[in-house]
Every structure is written in C-alpha cells, then in structure tokens.
Amino acid sequence: MTIEQELVKKLRSSNLRPTKQRLEICRVLFDRQKTFHFTISDLAQILNEKSKNKISLATIYNTVDVLKSKGHLKEISINSDKTFFDTNISNHHHFFNENTNELTDFYDEDISQIKIKKNIPGKKIKSVEVLVKVANNN
C-alpha cells in the first residue's frame, strides 16, 4: 500500500473525507521516519510553508481533533496553555525542555519500575505515562 493510500485509509477510518487539505495535513503528520511532536501553531506554520493549498486554522484544528479522538494521535498537556500532539501513540514517556519547548520520547526501559499505591474506586489504570520537565543549567 502506498503512503497516499494509507493516508486516505486513515482519514476514511476517522470518518473524514480525504480532501486535498486533509491529505496535506496527514502527509506532514504521518509521512515521516521519526515521531513528530507538535502544537497546532507548529503544524499551521509548517503547512503554510509547505502547502500549495490554503488550509484554514479551523480545518487544522478539526482534523487533528478527529484524528486524536480516533486514536491516530496522542495529546500531551504540558500545562493549561500548552498542548502537544504526538504521532507515536504507543505508551511512552516524555521529557519537556522548558527552555526550547521541545518534547523528547523516552521509554519504560529508561526508568525504574513505577508503583502506584492508590486506587480510584470504579476506575482501572489504562497506562502510566511520565512527563519530566527539564530546564537548561544556567
């Protein structure tokens, strides 16, 4: 299956029509070798620089939101005003560099076992994902 066919399949499985704009968004998100961490404004800037088509901010927001809700993207909230999205949807952890605003992946083998001693009645833990905030030494 070609990358174009994979992107169309991803959009259709999300109940989105594969328009030129949505395909361009998916190309930027998923046609790459490495994990892509981004904010909506990062994505909008990349699309404005790369795309031949005009893509509205509303289309970007809506497409990302639907892809996230269908499990194709992971949302990582850094604080109340900073949200990243991740194309790597597996369970993993992140370093967030407060100086550069960059997210970096790390995995279970990079940390000791995490033990959670508290249960929430009626809830089951689906995953444990650690966010470590770092800053440059100055």
CATH architecture of the largest domain: Orthogonal Bundle
Number of strands: 6
Oligomeric category: single chain
> Percent range for helical residues?
25-40%
CATH topology of the largest domain, by name, is Arc Repressor Mutant, subunit A
- Supply the number of structural domains: 2
Question: Which regions contain 5 or more consecutive residues with pLDDT less than 50?
Answer: none
How is the main sheet built?
3 strands, antiparallel
**In the CATH hierarchy, what is the superfamily of the largest domain?**
Winged helix-like DNA-binding domain superfamily/Winged helix DNA-binding domain
Shape: globular
Structural class: alpha+beta
Roughly what is the average pLDDT, rounded to an integer? 92
What is the top-level CATH class of the largest domain? Mainly Alpha
| Sequence of strands across the biggest β-sheet | 1-3-2
Q: Order of SSEs, N→C?
A: HHEHHEEEEE
Q: Count of helices?
A: 4
What can you tell me about this protein's structure?
The chain has 138 residues and is an alpha+beta fold. It has two domains: 3-82, Arc Repressor Mutant, subunit A (Orthogonal Bundle), CATH 1.10.10; 90-134. The protein is built from four helices and six strands; from the N terminus they run ααβααβββββ. It has helices at 3-13, 20-30, 40-50, 57-69, and strands at residues 37-38, 74-79, 82-86, 93-97, 102-106, 131-134. The model has no long low-confidence stretch (mean pLDDT 92).
